[in-house]
Amino acid sequence: MVNFTCPACNKDCIPLKDKYAMGYWMTRRCAGCNSLIANHAILLGVLTFAYLWNLLFFIGLAQFNQSWHYFGYMLVIWFVLDLINIKYVPLMIIHRQ
Ligand SMILES: [Zn+2]
């Protein structure tokens, strides 16, 4: 099981499902030190525009070209964006305990 490092206590106690949830603007408490943490807000904001672009661009293509296969491209790019979100967006402390 992959764990991520808490920015407050530097222990590897953030599970993958919590890191994934924080990629969608949620907050979680560290199991080790109970600090409130989230994904870095500015980077997450940039990434949210990428998610939105992905959604609107491929829905638009599917609409104009009358073809469903663009939704396949959308899912692939969505998966890549999720990987970037999990791997490269750092965590930040909202409230240190
Ligand atoms: Zn912690």
Q: Briefly, what is this?
A:
The protein is α+β, with helices and mostly antiparallel strands and 97 residues long.
Report on the structure:
With 97 residues, the chain is an alpha+beta fold. The chain has one domain. Helices cover 53% and strands 19% of the residues. The chain contains three helices and five strands. The strands form two sheets. Strands 3-4-5 form a three-stranded antiparallel β-sheet. It has a two-stranded antiparallel ribbon with strand order 1-2. The longest helix is centred in the middle third of the chain and has 25 residues, at 41-65. The chain is elongated. The structure holds zinc ion. Zinc ion (ZN) binds next to loops.
Low-confidence stretches: none
Compute the separation of the termini in Å: 26 Å
What small molecules are bound in this structure?
zinc ion
| Strand elements, count | 5
Q: How would the global form be characterised? A: elongated
Biggest sheet descriptor: 3 strands, antiparallel
- How large a portion of the residues is in β-strands, by DSSP E? 15-25%
Mean pLDDT: 94
Counting structural domains, the number is 1
Considering DSSP H and I runs of 4 or more, what fraction of the residues is helical? 40-55%
Give Rg in angstroms: 16 Å
What order do the strands of the largest sheet run in, or round the barrel if closed? 3-4-5
| Tally of helical segments | 3
Structural class: alpha+beta
Output the helix-strand order: EEHEEHHE
